[in-house]
Model the fold of this input.
Amino acid sequence: MPRKVDGWTLSGSSEDRQPEFKKNLKDYVYVQKKFIPETVCKQSIKEIEDISFQEHKFYDSETKTYKTRAASHELHMSWDNISTTQVIMENLHNAISNYQSYVNLPWFKNWNGYSPIRINKYEEKREMAMHCDHIRDMFDGERKGIPIVTILGILNDNYKGGNFILFDDYDINLKEGDVLIFPSLFMYPHKVKPVTEGIRYSFVSWVW
Ligand SMILES: [Fe+2]
Done:
C-alpha cells in the first residue's frame, strides 16, 4: 500500500503492457490540453489575489542558502490553499494516471504520491531562471524520496511573454487549463521568459 502523505497517493501504473521504450527526450514531455476546467481556473484566479506570496528562491547546496537567480525579477509563489485546491488535486491525480499510461513504465511503479500545489505568480518583468527540478528539501522529511515528474498547470493566458521553454528552444505553447508533465531531471532544464504584459498564473506539483 502506498503511504498516505497529504492525503494524495498514487498506486503506480496499473497496466502491464509491453513497454515501447521511448528514447527521445521530448517523448517524455506530455501536455494535456484544457485539463483543468475553465470555471476552476477562473475561480482560482479570483481567490489568488487574496493569498500571501513570497519571492521564489532556488536552494544553493554549496552555501546552503536560498537565492534568486534572475536578479530581482523572480516570480512570486504561495503554498496557501484556495477553495479550488481540492478539485485541482483531484484533476492532477487523473493527469498523472494518464501520464503513467502514456509513458508506460512497467518496471517502475514506485510512485508514492504528489505534493500539494504551489501557486506561481509572474507579474510584469518577472521570470524564472533556467533550472532543473532536482528538488531535495521537499522530499527529505515526511515525504521521503525524489521528485519523479513535475506537473505544471496554467490558470490563465491573458498575458504576454511568459513562455515556458524546455531545453534551449522548445517553446511549449500553454493555455488556460493546460497541464504539462515532464521528468524532474537535470536532462529537462527549463525556464519561464519574462512576462511583458499582464500577470501569468500557474501552479506546480511534484510526484515523488
Ligand atoms: Fe522547475
About this structure: The chain has a mean pLDDT of 89. Residues 62 and 148 are 23 Å apart (CA to CA). The chain has one domain: 29-207.
